Amino acid sequence: MIITHLAVSGVGRFRTRHVVRGLGAGLNLLCAPNEAGKSTLFRALTLALFARHGSKTEEIRRLESLGAELPACIEVGFQRGGAAYLLKKSFLRATGAKLFKNGALVADGRAADEAVWTALDLTPGTSAAEEAAFGLLWVRQGQSFEPAAPSDGTRALLSRVIEAEVGEVLGGERGERVLKSVTDRLALDETAKGQPKAGGAWKAALDRRAEAETTLAALRATLAGLEADRTALADKLRERDMLADPAEIARQKADRDAALAERDRTVKAEQAAQQAETEVAQRELAFDRARKSHEELVGLDQRIAKTRDKIATLTRRVAEQADARAAQSARLASHEQAFGALATQLAEAERAVDRARRHEIAAREAERVAELSTRLAKARELREAIARIKHLITTITVPAEAVAAIEAAMQALDAARARAEAKAPRVRITVAPAGRGRVICAGESVDATRDVAAVVPLTVAVGDLATIEVMPAASDDAAAIDVARQALDKALHDAGVGSLAEAHERRAKVSDLQTEGRGLAAELAAIAPAPAKGAKEDAIAALERALAEAQASLDAGVEAGLDGTALPDRDALVRARVEAEAARDRLRRAHADAQSAVLAARSETEAETLRLQAAQLDLADQQGKLAEDLAICPDDRRVDRLARLAADAAQARAAFEAAATKAKELRAQVPSADSRVALDARVKRLVQAIDGREERLAEVEREIANLQGRVATRGGEGLGEREAET
């Protein structure tokens, strides 16, 4: 097998396609600086020949280019058995495998993987790590000092050879010498427990191996960091090349300059349009001024004509108002004369009504004097009767306390007598029919059976036949009866009565007198009502005062020839008063109507005067306005000035319309607001893109310098050989 060429893309640091050519028969040397990717190429060659294209092992994932989503593509050309083969495989993404023999496709996919192994005389699944995979020595980088791991067949063959050699060596005296020599040699490096002996070769070898492993770990860590830095450095170099691309930079600047030029043209067009619009505004202002001047003069001319018409109208109206006011003044004088006559008649009617009322009042007052005199006499009689009743009540009244004392004394006497009767002997007298009227007990005739208590000595006489005396025994109850009788006598004496019945009779009479007094008081109150609470005079005095006032009124109101007894009939007086009031009311209505007519005429006269004054003021005002307007522009100059101002207005309008047309054309050439905003955004975006590109280029330069410094600091030259040696 002779390898003729190797190509990779998307593998490790080789993101783009890299091809190794010129390989052939004999010794081929691949020379490049450390970390240039030699080991990556050999890993790619191994995996292309011995790994399935769909495999996802860690070894295959290590082929991936950092920071790129690219398939790992490997192409191997080799010669075998006089035939030229070309193997193409892609791993990780868009996986596939194709095998070409002498330019013709012979296998695809999984069949291509197995066809390669068949062409190399390998069984399917043979590991590339086995030394028997090639008919030559295949040593990986960093594995030159690692012990070989034989396959199962190799291990069986070696076992058979060693067994034969050992059997031959260990047989006889020679075997014993070899065993003793090995044992003695082993005792120098091993303890009795099978541990390495200090100072021995075994212990020294173990120490060197541990030191070498530590050094190897450090070298591998440095190599990994160096590999990452170089990968990042390559990425940054490619990014710098892209950022520093003169064509792209020139294109961006050209776009920016074109956008700036377009924006400048837009600004100039906007300025020109604004200047034209400013001129339009100025022309419009001049046109408005000229038009306004012409319109003001036209308005002045029209106003002068209208003012003259108003002056003529107002002159006629002033004359008419003066005539109307004179006529109204005459009507007012007539109404005032009639009103004065009615006022005189009304005053006389008012005096007649007053006289009739005084006559009627005098008659009424005379009747009231008579009525008050009668009431006063009756009130005095009632007051005297009430006084007599009160005196009689005071004389015969018995206080309720005295009645209660008499009743208590009688109850005590009755109780004492009852106790004495209960203790006294009982005398029963039964009279036969023949003895009726002949038996007398205690001075009373007994006609039938009678029980008598002998409280005191009792005498019973039987006609002329016999006298029986019953003497009761001495008892304390007699003294109690005497005490009770004395108390009763005292109570009766204090009350001024002879018995309890008399006391009750007196109290009943007092109640009747009080009822009679209340009736008289009610009658008195009806005749002479009680004065208000707090008044200093009583009802009689109030009646006397009212009578005096009525008499005084009567005396004052009666005219000469009339007195209280010679007044006419009340009905006649009322009729006279009613007739006088009716006549007065008729005159009042006529007077009110005349007064209303006077007021209306006076108001109308004042209104006519005000209308005349208003017309005169309007006339003076219009004459003043006419003088002011003529002072502004007299009649002899107004026609020429109107013609000149009309020409100026027409010229200003033509200039304004021309300027407006030009401004419209210039404004149409200005891009829209959205277009200007988009253009500004484009300029800003292009400027930012160029500035960002320059800033990023400077940043990438700094990152490249940092990465180059780290690569140089880590001593990249010779790290791979030092790792292999270690």
Order of helices and strands: EEHHEEEEHHHHHHEEEEEEHHHHHHH
Question: Might you state the CATH topology name of the domain at 2-138?
Answer: Rossmann fold
Q: Give the tally of β-strands.
A: 12
β-strand percent reads 5-15%
Which whole number gives the mean pLDDT? Answer: 80
Low-confidence stretches: 126-137
What proportion of the residues is helical, as a percent range?
55-70%
Question: Judging from the principal axes of the Cα atoms, what is the shape?
Answer: flat
State the major sheet: 6 strands, antiparallel
CATH architectural grouping of the domain at 2-138: 3-Layer(aba) Sandwich
* CATH homology superfamily name of the domain at 2-138: P-loop containing nucleotide triphosphate hydrolases
Organism: Rhodoplanes elegans
Pfam families: AAA_23 (PF13476)
Coiled coil: 209-236, 346-423, 533-597, 649-710
Keywords: Coiled coil
What does this structure look like?
The structure is a single chain. The protein is an alpha+beta fold and about 725 residues long. Among the domains are: about 1-140, P-loop containing nucleotide triphosphate hydrolases (Rossmann fold); about 425-475, no CATH class. It is about 70% helix and about 10% strand. The protein has helices at about 40-50, 60, 110-120, 150-170, 175-190, 200-245, 245-395, 400-425, 475-495, 500-525, 540-555, 570-630, 635-670, 675-715, 720-725; strands at about 1-10, 20, 70-80, 85-90, 95-100, 105-110, 425-430, 440, 445, 450-455, 460, 465-470. The strands form three sheets. The protein has a six-stranded antiparallel β-sheet with strand order 2-1-3-4-5-6. The chain has a four-stranded antiparallel β-sheet with strand order 9-8-11-12, with no helix packed on it. Strands 7-10 form a two-stranded antiparallel ribbon. A hairpin with a 4-residue loop joins strand 4 (about 85-90) and strand 5. The longest helix is centred in the middle third of the chain and has 151 residues, at about 245-395. It is flat, with a radius of gyration of 82 Å. Mean pLDDT is about 80; it is low at about 125-135.
